[in-house]
Amino acid sequence: MSYSNRIFLWAPLAFLLVLALTVSARWWSVASDLSRRLDAMNGHQPMPGVTVGFASKAIGGFPFNVDVVFHDFAVTVAGPHGPIGWRAENFAAHALTYGRSQWLFEAAGKQRLSWTSGSGQARSLAFETGSLHAGAIFSEDALSRFDLDIVGFNSAALASARTQLHLRHNREQIDLVGSAEELHLSPALRGTCGDVVDRVRFEGNLSNAEAFERVQRALVTWQRAFDAWRAKGGRFFLAQGELACAGANSFVQGQLALDAQRRPRGLLTAQIAGFDRLRASATRAGANGTFSAGLLNQPTDPNPAHEGRVTVRAAFRDGITYLGDTPAGMNDPLY
Q1: Consecutive 10-residue averages of pLDDT for the chain (335 residues)
Q2: For the chain, how big is the Rg over CA atoms in Å?
Q3: Do residues 251 and 312 make contact, with C-beta atoms less than 8 angstroms apart?
Q4: Domain spans in the chain, listed from the N-terminal domain onward
Q5: What is the pTM of this model?
Q6: DSSP 328
Q7: DSSP 252-293
C-alpha cells in the first residue's frame, strides 16, 4: 500500500479521534465548572434576595448536553411580608454544551409553596403536577425570555388543567402572557365566579424595560428593580384580559402603575357579557364582599342590542379601588 493511500485511510480516523477528544474535553470542562458553581451556590444567594439549596445533585448528559438532577431542591425569594419558597422532591435542568445560552427545567414529585401573609402568618400549599416545564434564554448574560408550562396542577386549595406564563424582553418593553384553564376552587376561594373558572388569560407589557436590566443580570433584588421602574414612570399596559366563568365572559383593557406607596394606580375597563348569569352564580356562591357587591350592583347596558351586558370601570387611586364612583375596597402596598 502506498503512502498516499495510507493517508486516505488513517486521516479520517485521526480527525474523528481528535474531534471526540475535543468534544469530551469541552463537556468535562463545562460539567466540572458547573458542578463547582452549583456547590458554591448551595445554601447561598446566587442573586440578591434569592437563596437556592439542594440535598444532592448528579450531572450527566455526555457528550452534547449538560443535565443536572437535584433531589430536595428549594428556592427562597424575599417577599413583601417575608420569604416566599418553593420546594420540589426532584428537579432537573438541561442545557446544550454548544449553541445559545438556553436552559430547560422540569420538576416532578411532591412540591410545596410557602409564604408569609400580610399579618405575618406562615402559610404553605402542598401540590403535585402532571408535568412542570420551564425554559430560560439568556442574551449577553441577561435573561431575555422565560416560559413556564404546568399541566395538571392539583392541590387542596385549587386545581388547574393547564397554567402558562411567558415573559420576553422586547426592545423597550417586557411582553407578558399568562393563562389558566379549568380552575377548580375550594370553598375558601369561591367568590363571584363560584367554584369553577373556565379560563383566565392576559396579554400585556411592562414599559421602561431598562429598569429591569440589573435584575435580569442577577445584580439586584426584584424590589429594587420595581422601584427603578416606578421612578421611571413605568406602566403595565393590559392589551387584553379575559375571564370566562359561570356562563359569562369578561374582556378587560387598561393600564396600571404604582404610586409613591407602591399601591396600584390606574384604570381598567371591563366589558362583561352574560352578566345576569354571573350575578346568579355569585348569589348561589354567597359572594358578599365589598368588591363583589359593588360589581354585582353595576347597571346593565340600556341598549337593547347589548342585553345582559355591563361595562365596569375600575379605578385605583390613593389606595382605594373604585367601581365607577363607588369605593369597593382598599389596596395595600404590593411590596
Answers
A1: 54 58 67 92 96 96 90 95 95 85 93 92 95 95 96 96 97 96 93 92 98 96 97 97 95 97 97 89 75 79 67 95 91 93
A2: 26
A3: no
A4: 1-115, 129-335
A5: 0.87
A6: E
A7: EEEEEEE-TTS-EEEEEEEEEESHHHHHHHHHHHT--SHHHH
